[in-house]
Specification:
globular; alpha/beta; single chain; 35% helix
Length: 346
């Protein structure tokens, strides 16, 4: 069967992965209201196309943190790609390098930051970071990725504790013995008596993380710092005050706080912030005109022929985005403005 859209890849993955693995990738917290609302919110968006605009030539390129990428879609930080394909994040990195877009590598990768950098040496990569109770763990990761040429740190700030993902609890989800969180390989081997949570000992994350830790992070690196997990105007303004280089508006795919808003509803973040800082909605495009925030969509393309699957999905998205631009009367990304979008009631 021809794979013509991302829904095809998602259905393929669901049919070929084990139930526990699929449930992990597709998980939301508690009743999954926020996860599901991420998709429903985009179904409420309507476009206001302009006509007779000469769209015979279109340009999807844009810049992020001063780097030109081929179109405004990148790979969000997602864990455990080797559950879906034996090359895992290495395949994802090569595909994003080939399509010249940004790959945000997860701390919870099943390939190390060194393996990913070696596989795609010219790729544009950021690194997603958590703050741990043992700060040296975070600090060592920062120094490793900075030395390897990663171009930014993406600090995830919405996980002081892990959300309650009911299917993972029912399935007793654990990484299989042959897979590890490779960035921590050898670090926790003496802690076998401690319960495991997603590949590392439980209670390793630091719930005391606060705004002062932004200053700590700035003191140990020269990399730009992007905060991922902001949903309110107040926190966006605090991010500006603390000197970060950008934010990623995200509800963690609905995997953390159930009952929070869909990320796209964070439209009240002030316009001057968007002009001053990089402002990204944490999404994976599902169609050229509609976007969702689910790890499952990324993994759906990884399981289908690994690197080639990721490359095929990114090309589909690029083609759909280009077509949607043209049909909306936009010749380049700069012509996409707020006036193009309106929200409707379902």
């Amino acid at each position: 069967m021809a794979m013509v859209c991302l829904t095809d890849f998602e259905e393929y993955a669901k049919a070929h992965l084990s139930k526990a693995t699929w449930d992990y990738y597709a998980a939301g917290a508690d009743e999954c209201c926020t996860r599901d609302d991420n998709l429903l919110a985009y179904k409420r968006i309507r476009l206001r196309p302009r006509i007779l605009r000469d769209v015979s030539v279109s340009d999807t390129r844009t810049t992020v943190q001063g780097k030109e990428i081929s179109f405004p879609v990148g790979i969000a930080p997602t864990a455990f790609h080797c559950l879906a394909w034996h090359e895992g994040e290495v395949a994802t990195a090569r595909a994003t390098e080939g399509l010249n877009t940004c790959y945000i590598t997860s701390t919870y990768s099943t390939c190390s930051v060194e393996e990913i950098a070696a596989a795609a040496p010219s790729g544009y990569r950021w690194f997603q970071l958590y703050v741990y109770r043992e700060r040296k763990l975070s600090e060592q990761l920062v120094h490793r990725v900075e030395a390897l040429g990663y171009k930014a740190l993406v600090l995830t700030v919405d996980v002081p504790y892990t959300g309650k993902r009911r299917n993972d609890i029912r399935n007793q989800f654990r990484l299989p013995p042959h897979l590890k969180v490779k960035n921590f390989e050898g670090v926790f081997e003496q802690e076998t008596s401690v319960p495991e949570e997603y590949g590392i000992p439980a209670n390793t994350l630091d719930p005391s993380i606060s705004w002062k830790d932004i200053y700590w992070l700035q003191s140990i690196t020269r990399l730009p710092i992007i905060i991922k997990g902001i949903l309110t105007k107040e926190d966006a303004e605090l991010a500006v005050e603390h000197g970060v280089q950008g934010i990623i508006v995200s509800n963690h795919g609905g995997r953390q706080l159930d009952g929070g808003p869909a990320s796209v509803h964070a439209k009240h973040i002030p316009h001057n912030f968007i002009l001053e800082k990089e402002f990204v909605i944490n999404r994976v495009i599902q169609y050229g005109t509609s976007v969702i925030d689910r790890q499952a969509v990324i993994i759906s393309c990884v399981i289908y022929q690994g690197e080639e699957g990721v490359r095929e999905v990114l090309q589909i998205l690029n083609d759909e985005f280009r077509l949607s631009m043209a049909l909306s009367g936009c010749r380049n990304v700069a012509e996409i403005s707020r006036n193009l979008v309106q929200f409707s009631k379902l």
